[in-house]
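Summary for the funding panel

The consortium committed to producing paired sequence-structure records for every protein in the target list. Below we show the first two records in order, beginning with the earlier of the two.
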Amino acid sequence: MTVVPGWLRDQLRGVDRRLAIDAELVVTALIANAHDHGGGVDIVRIYVHRRPVQVRVEVDDGLPQASPTVGRSRLGGFGGRGPAIVDSVASWGVVRRLRDQTVWATVGPRQNRGVGGGDR
């Protein structure tokens, strides 16, 4: 998991520092969530757009019935913070399929923050 945020940091050199920090938080939270709740990470895709500067993160996992929920966790009272962090800095959602799902988030200056994880 430590390789992906470092790679992203390298890709975002020269980009607004706040956006880069938000993107790193998002990628870390989505990967951790897939690992803890989604049966593990199948695929991570990261798209960095330069104009306008946006970062889109997509994480696939194998448990479509375990979609993230802001503020709630099946692991107890201390969970649910990852989706809350993502919700505060990015637009995000879940694409469910029969056997897997993709949780995606987009960080950028023009994004509507905190859309609450609606399906897209």
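The next record, for a separate protein in the list, is shown here:
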Amino acid sequence: METALQRIIRKTGRRPVECRCRLCRQQCRIPCLGTPEDILRLLKAGYRERLAPTRWAVGLLLGKIPYIVPMVQAKQEAGGCTFLAYRSFRVLKSL
């Protein structure tokens, strides 16, 4: 069975990267969405307090889908993603 990540890669042609250059780290100023599997791993690893229920509306705004998608993603902190703010980027990589 195809995972959410595999489906995203197939549909978008984009692949995950593990680059830590300045430009890639700058993207962490806005929390990424993560796949359902990513979020589940974070929950199982005890990071519930760093996640929040949200609503994704980009697809609706762009006319791609007719509804807002409820989801869970990393919390936004003053400096960006909660995992960047707490210098715990390695946490994500280790899960």
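Regarding this second record: The two ends are 21 Å apart (CA to CA). The chain is about 40% helix and 15% strand.
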